[in-house]
Amino acid sequence: MTFSELPPGAVAVAWALMGLMVGSFLNVCIYRLPLEGMSVRSPRRSHCPACGTQLGWKENIPLVSWIIQAGRCRACSAWISLRYPFVEAANAGLWYMAVVLAGPADWPLWFCWSVVLSGLLVATMVDFDCFQIPDEVSLGGCVLAPLACLLVPSLQGETILAQVLSEIPEGGVDRVGALLASFAGMGVGAGVLFLIGALGKKLYGAEAMGLGDVKLLAAGGGFIGPGGALAALALAALVASVFGLFNMLRFFILSRSRARGRGRSDGVGRSLRVARLAGRYLPFGPFLGLGIGMVLLAWDDLNTLWI
């Protein structure tokens, strides 16, 4: 029996459950990759960050263990971050969407989409925590993208450049066209963001864009092509601007509230400076991940909205 013969909902749900289990592994990556002396393979057993107790299989059931234990370690009762069940549930949801949007029969496409989305999820959470993007995700994506496009040309199925460079009529994409579009996407993604960072540094005398963001968009561009990379960057900038303004407003209100609570006569100018400083400390990687993911899953819909 093939995937096309199975009920579409059954394939999506089964793959979502697999995504839930993989989400547990992603939590290991998110916790360990930024830490010196740790890797995904070492130590071999997961442990409580608070007391160091090794976790048994009962503590490692995705989502279920966190709920049964009421979000606390069995050994020391320390609080277990909401990030753990969130990542597991989010990965399950993303994998479910991949199957539904690609179609159960096109398993090579939704398999590749799922891998990319999980990598973006890891990059997002690590960047939120540590203001860095693991090279294992970004550089690993740069290596994986052209190989994946060579094996699964439909990854570049909506990329105009891939269609132009392919010998298949009526907008089809062959392996050569997909591979060339992947390299072009990596070049455009890295090049544009690097130029923006260099220009920002020249204008403001400080780093305006981290190399981690450059490498992440390069990897993403390898999967979504040059036009997709530009679209992902535009979406990321738009959403980041909205969140940045919200963050500045939040810190402005917080600064004014604390000043009044302490009986200080701090002026509005000081609160504005605090808010402006807070607005700068917002990682860009999560928004790039959001933009890449949106283009990956809904390129046709985005084109329809813009056109």
Account of the protein in words:
The structure is a single chain. 69% of the residues lie in helices and 0% in strands. The protein has 307 residues and is mostly helical. It has a domain of 105 residues. Helix 5 runs antiparallel to helix 7. The longest helix has 51 residues.
Structural class: mainly alpha
Helix content: 55-70%
Mean pLDDT: 87
DSSP strand (E) fraction? under 5%
Q: Show unreliable segments.
A: none
| Major sheet summary line | none
| Termini gap | 41 Å
So what's the overall shape?
Answer: globular
Number of strands: 0
Radius of gyration: 22 Å
Which descriptors apply to this entry?
307 residues, mainly alpha, 69% helix, 0% strand
Topology (SSEs and partners):
Blueprint: H1 8-32, H2 64-68, H3 83-102, H4 107-130, H5 135-151, H6 160-165, H7 175-204, H8 211-261, H9 268-280, H10 285-306
Summarize the structure.
With 307 residues, the protein is mainly α.
